Amino acid sequence: MSASVEKKPLEEVIIVGSGPAGVTAAIYAARANLEPLMIEGEEVGGQLMTTTDVENYPGFAEGIMGPDLMTVTKQQASRFGTRFIPKNVTKVDLSSRPFKLWIEDEEYQAKSLIISTGASAKYLGLESERKLLGRGVSACATCDGAFFRNQKVCVVGGGDTAMEEANFLTRFASKVYVIHRRDEFRASKIMAERVINNEKVEVLWNSELKEVVGDNAVEKIKVFNNQTNETVEMEMDGVFIAIGHKPNTDLFVDQLDMNDVGYLTTQPKSTYTSVDGVFACGDVQDDIYRQAITAAGTGCMAAMDAERWLENQEHSS
Ligand code: NDP
């Protein structure tokens, strides 16, 4: 008997990615009876799953925890019939319609596609950083902060993420150093002030992390001062990298137009990408606002764009 490959039914719309953009797109697409299939990715829920308090998402006067926000939003999408697959898409072919997507060797087909694959944390690119990743080096204080109770940690970066991580880490650590390459923060004033006024935090200005020292755990760091040209060694237990994010667009290289740092380009006032029938929303196409609420807003736009596009296809066929 020959093995038969299950043929997946043609989907109206597949949503790739499960952060605020994707889940909002799913709510709108499901309520439009498109029965969306969401391929969530292995990091289900996206970046908010590694955040603590979200204080700026409208509707939650007291704030809400990032994972709680994503859980309740997913329930909302599920209630209207969204189906979920918690795996990574491994390949796409957008050269003809229906579009084809693969999860390993399982093939899916869709009339339209909504891409909401978000962005991922960036690293400095040091050999020693890679070697000790998960052994004291981390890009997620929410995930790993509690391992550093009464220990010394540092946070690299000067944006809002670095401020948030540094403040959060003071709950556990005895001392938090913020290592920033310039003499002023990029972060919003309120977040920066919270850090500067926190007595457990010390800011190392004009400073660059050059090496993380240790075999199986972080023991020391080497920090270069770019004003004095001096390098100092400091004892350290944990190193948190918070220097921004990279859009998750590797799957779409040579298939969709991107800007010079890899964000998908969309047509003004829409979520249309360079391929007809493929829409993009959230951080994967937004290198300016990058907020949960703006991601959700563009998720709504993508579902509405896809719905109208599908309707026009039917009328013109
Ligand atoms: P940002 O791009 O805003 O900041 C990155 C920081 O890392 C900058 O200070 C930058 O330095 C530094 N950096 C970048 N590359 C390197 C490098 N190779 N070596 C050393 N330092 C480096 O990213 P964030 O992740 O902080 O924030 C992204 C967006 O998300 C922002 O819009 C932010 O406002 C938002 N956000 C909002 C939050 C909230 O409101 N609760 C929480 C977290 C993020 P330099 O300044 O010199 O360029």
Poorly predicted regions are none
For the terminal residues, how far apart are their CA atoms? 40 Å
- Based on CA atoms alone, the radius of gyration comes out at 22 Å
Strand percentage, roughly?
Answer: 25-35%
Give the helices and strands as they follow along the chain. EHEEEHEEEEEHEHEHEHEEEEEEEH
Which architecture of the largest domain would the CATH scheme give at its second level? 3-Layer(bba) Sandwich
Q: What is the structural class?
A: alpha/beta
How confident is the prediction overall: mean pLDDT? 94
Describe the fold and architecture.
This protein is an alpha/beta fold and 317 residues long. It folds into 2 domains: 11-120 and 245-316, FAD/NAD(P)-binding domain (3-Layer(bba) Sandwich), CATH 3.50.50.60; 123-241, FAD/NAD(P)-binding domain, CATH 3.50.50.60. It is built from 7 helices and 19 strands. The protein has helices at residues 20-31, 66-79, 127-131, 141-144, 160-169, 189-196, 292-316; strands spanning 11-16, 37-39, 53-54, 64-65, 83-85, 91-93, 99-103, 106-115, 119-121, 137-138, 152-156, 175-179, 201-204, 207-213, 220-225, 230-235, 238-241, 245-247, 278-280. The strands form 5 sheets. Strands 1, 2, 5, 6, 7, 8 and 19 form a 7-stranded mixed β-sheet that branches. The longest helix has 25 residues, at 292-316. The protein is elongated. NADPH dihydro-nicotinamide-adenine-dinucleotide phosphate is lined by residues 56, 124, 156-162, 164, 181-182, 186, 243-245, 290.
Tell me briefly what this model is:
With 317 residues, this protein is α/β, with parallel strands linked by helices. It has helices spanning 20-31, 66-79, 127-131, 141-144, 160-169, 189-196, 292-316; strands at 11-16, 37-39, 53-54, 64-65, 83-85, 91-93, 99-103, 106-115, 119-121, 137-138, 152-156, 175-179, 201-204, 207-213, 220-225, 230-235, 238-241, 245-247, 278-280. Helices cover 25% and strands 26% of the residues.
